[in-house]
Amino acid sequence: MPMKLPFFKNKKTKVKEETELDNIPEHVAIIMDGNGRWAKKRGFPRIAGHKEGMEVVKKIVNTAVNCHVKVLTLYAFSTENWSRPKSEVDYLLGLPKEFLHIYLPEMIENNVKIDTIGNFDVLPNHTKKAIRYAKEQTKDNDGLLLNFALNYGSRFEIVQAIRQIITDIDSSKLTLDKLDEHIFSEYLYTTGLSDPDLLIRTSGEQRLSNFLLWQLAYTEFWFTDVLWPDFSDEKFKEALHDYQRRKRRYGGI
Ligand SMILES: Cc1cc(N2CCCCCC2)n2ncc(-c3ccc(F)cc3)c2n1
């Protein structure tokens, strides 16, 4: 008597339809590079590139909202940027106030929550005042988290984390045996945030420039020659679609 094999009900297995929203990267990080080059190509002063770049920030934020991205981290000012001419540093650190003066109402309307990572305290008072107000005005929003990396440097962030861990171990707030990757990540500016799923860098450069060195360990990188002021919602969606293609498993594991 042949062994009776189990049989499956002749039910039509539901094929999961891939949708536009499948495999959307939850956290997208962007190195917004190429602003100076954009201005130079046009015979404009460098600050014209930064100004145009600020307008693109607003466009890409709206696109990220519409594409259901959950966190958007933008590298706006690095610790290395302090070495630029004072006039350019002053202009750059005036952009947060200018951006928020124009676009904060629209950010609130779109349920965007604004936050920052980086060494905030040493920024100019006018910059801090504008950003503190925006953080307060958006603190209860639960839509896109718009996270500006301001006066951010990853190596500084990692050294600060190590210093604090040593302090906490010395004061018995932490014991060495409890220290692992998860506990370490809680000492970084990005504590509580998931690591970026997708990193976009514009202007053709293919390096990290001291950005999120710990957090990008498993992140997909997408590079484009397009200069940030020329970046568009079409290019942003191209990056998202490329990410979706990489993550598609066609029913496999
Ligand atoms: C320093 C800096 C530079 C800056 N650029 C424009 C984008 C291209 C890259 C550099 C220049 N942008 N663009 C938006 C902000 C900003 C920051 C915080 C905030 F709460 C609201 C807006 C910004 N901040």
From TrEMBL:
Mg(2+) binds at residues 33, 220. GO terms for biological process: polyprenol biosynthetic process. Binds 2 magnesium ions per subunit. Its cofactor is Mg(2+). GO terms for molecular function: ditrans,polycis-undecaprenyl-diphosphate synthase [(2E,6E)-farnesyl-diphosphate specific] activity; magnesium ion binding; manganese ion binding. This is Isoprenyl transferase. NCBIfam families: PRK14830.1 (NF011405), uppS (TIGR00055). Belongs to the UPP synthase family. CDD domains: Cis_IPPS (cd00475). The active site is at residues 33, 81. Substrate binds at residues 34-38, 46, 50, 78-80, 82, 84, 201, 207-209. Catalyzes the condensation of isopentenyl diphosphate (IPP) with allylic pyrophosphates generating different type of terpenoids. HAMAP family: ISPT (MF_01139). Pfam families: Prenyltransf. GO terms for cellular component: cytosol. Keywords: Magnesium, Metal-binding, Transferase. Homodimer. It comes from Lentibacillus kapialis. SUPFAM superfamilies: Undecaprenyl diphosphate synthase. Its EC number is 2.5.1.-.
